[in-house]
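Protein data sheet
==================
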Amino acid sequence: MFHLDKPFEIKDVSATGTFAGYGSVYGNLDQGDDIVAPGAFADSLKSHSAKGRLPALLWQHKQSEPIGTFTAMREDDHGLYVEGKLALKTQRGAEAYELMQMKAISGMSIGFQTKEDDFDRKSGVRTILKGDLWEVSLVTFPMNDAARVMHIKSIEEVVDFKSAERLLRDAGGFSRSEAVALVSRIKSLTQSESVDEDETRQLIKALALRTQLLTP
């Protein structure tokens, strides 16, 4: 599953724990060089609706920590609009409510499986054209720590060193500077020791997976 973090504006947090905001903003380039295209989750939302449910509301992308439910979710011209209700009688739901009221929580992140995308090799920008939406989380640090928990890309998505850096950041939890430095080092080794390109991809994937598995 891939997930994409965005800052979001809490329109309202009521005493009953209900809130509203945007889980994703369309056409906006994020720090991981990804853009979500308008309508990317239309098919997924229809599928959820047919099953009589909506994607999960989670805390920090942790599957073991649901903090409530979404009562409405739809796409509009701006992005993915959501309305949710926190489970105030649970410890994590009550904590989320308090932190949202204080504006200590200011991030929302979507978790999804990419179904169709368009990758610009020149710019390194990937546009998400269609995705299967699984969950939307409240997160502390949008565009940073949350992305490392669930984002495990397939090896086929590592097509060059730019995408390798993104994999290490998103799946492995490396910072941007750490990922750039590590890939630069691996690149220098491939040039000096004639390491096979497929071996390089496997090494990068293994590093990301190992780091993800060690992440608490």
Remarks:
- The longest helix spans residues 176-193.
